[in-house]
Task: structure prediction
Amino acid sequence: MHRGKGMKFVGDSRIPAERKPNIPKDYSEYPGKTEAFWPNFLLKEWMVGAVFLVGYLCLTVAHPSPLERVADPTDAGYIPLPDWYFLFLYQLLKYTYASGPYNVIGAFIIPGLAFGALLLAPFIDRGPERRPIKRPFATGFMLLALASVVFLTWESVVNHDWEAAKAQGQIVEGPEIDQNSEGFQIYQENGCINCHGETLTGGAAAPSLVGTGLSPDEIKTIAVEGVGTMPPGQFKGTDEELGKLAEFISTLEAE
Amino acid sequence: MLNKIYDWVDERLDITPLWRDIADHEVPEHVNPGHHFSAFVYCFGGLTFFVTVIQILSGMFLTMYYVPDIKNAWESVYYLQNEVAFGMIVRGMHHWGASLVIVMIFLHTLRVFFQGAYKKPRELNWMVGVLIFFVMLGLGFTGYLLPWDMKALFATKVGIEIAAATPFIGEQLKTLLAGHPDIIGAQTLTRFFAIHVFFLPAALLGLMAAHFIMIRRQGISGPL
Amino acid sequence: MSKQPVSRRQFLNYTLMGVGGFMAAGMLMPMVRFAIDPVLAEGAAGEFQTTNQKVDELTSTPVRVDFSYEQQDAWYTSEVTETAWVYKDENGEVVALSPICKHLGCTVNWEGDNHKNQFYCPCHGGLYEKNGNNVPGTPPTAPLDKYPTKVKDGFLQLGKPEPQTIA
Result:
């Protein structure tokens, strides 16, 4: 590179005024082992990218992204599930020595160790060898970690009730509910809301109360004696309130 | 005409070396899938970048309709998905892209690991790469809450409880994330929105710039 | 072979641009369509809102008619109140004028500030004739907008205000 005396610059800048010819090397003249990034190699990369994009768009069209019903913090029966790439962590926390009093182990120490080791891998595996077979500890630990992540994810997937998960999140078109009505107040005070939800459309623990087709008397019986998985003695108010509640629920019709 | 404009700018700013460096560097044979098909493993990094670009673009477009507010968030997502033309596709791209980017970055990490490509002199680049991985997971976690549907809310509750298990600063960390000591609600949503849309992407762009500059400085690791 | 043969490098460059263009289009086409959707959306034209003004009670003196309706703005529904000045002209036709001053959008009043038989805008002293025509020499440069009107069960219905031209 030309330096020092005799250099001419553009204005008072540091940009050299003398133009160098701007012709790139033509790699086609040198059939060797390397090739130029632009355009030769980039073309191959972008072709891969284009194929990838087509597959990606097909996936997008074939599987619309899911949207469950609007968040309802009062629905205590909902069983949450994280995105699939956090499933292994979610599953880990189900095991005895990773939860309860040992929660800190599952939630902090194990992930911390794993991610810390990943971050500091160059300083743990310091030998000059690069082939996986020549550095058995690094390869071994990585395979072990990989296997446990796959195993935990798998366990979490097979133990999850996907149909119930789908049902509990579905968008349900509920009726317009007057939350100031007497019936709704009674519904709320007696804790029915905890399982049957704010919109009375049910949840994971209880069915929807909308459009049941039951008469007020039948509803009275269920509220007091329970039905199915619903235990008896849920209703704790007066008979007059029970009547109002039954009247309220029996009139709910889906729109 | 275009050449003249280019020359005019180039005379003043000397921009040619900038892109010449990127365009003219030679790519060795062992990473070129055109020479050895097995070199496709070197594509995962590039595909991660590609999906990241799609994520940034689709995310920018989604914020044209989305509001980070517990009363309207779900309504706006429902509206943009069902009422706006191509809303299903754009939201789908962002949704599936979030999964694909994790898959790609995971494969890229495994490729680099099993090839021992993180060894001297590339230790720093590996660490930056792992940090990018963390940022991506953070983006996935914060983005999960934004539609404000059932699974968003309850998965975030679990996630924040996991963060609360951190020794000594767990409670503070939980409040910092949720914006309130007990409630996962309005303040959590705005916080997650800010983190998802401004803080983490800013960190991501910085880290990616460092990642790429280091690759250009050091070149691709040699064949095994 | 033409006089300027396409070199290998040029060919690769063109192909690269083609593939790059395909990728950019594949990515951006849905997103751009998504973004410009409001521009392409069909306007909800011809929607008439019913007021509680009986047409029989209208005289040749403009009266202020307030009416409100539910406005659906994407996911947000709100109650919007609008106002019109309504009277019957010489032929007995109902005329409904928008009170939005064409100067800077203030609200005009019938015979405000003692301007007999005129609409007066308090902001900058704009004046309009009874038919909505702007009085030359005052700030407004166009006549007041006019509501399309309809009558249903004896009540007045108003559509979307339209600009009117008075020669």
The beta strands of chain C are 49-54, 63-73, 76-88, 94-97, 109-110, 119-121, 126-128, 146-147, 149-152, 155-158.
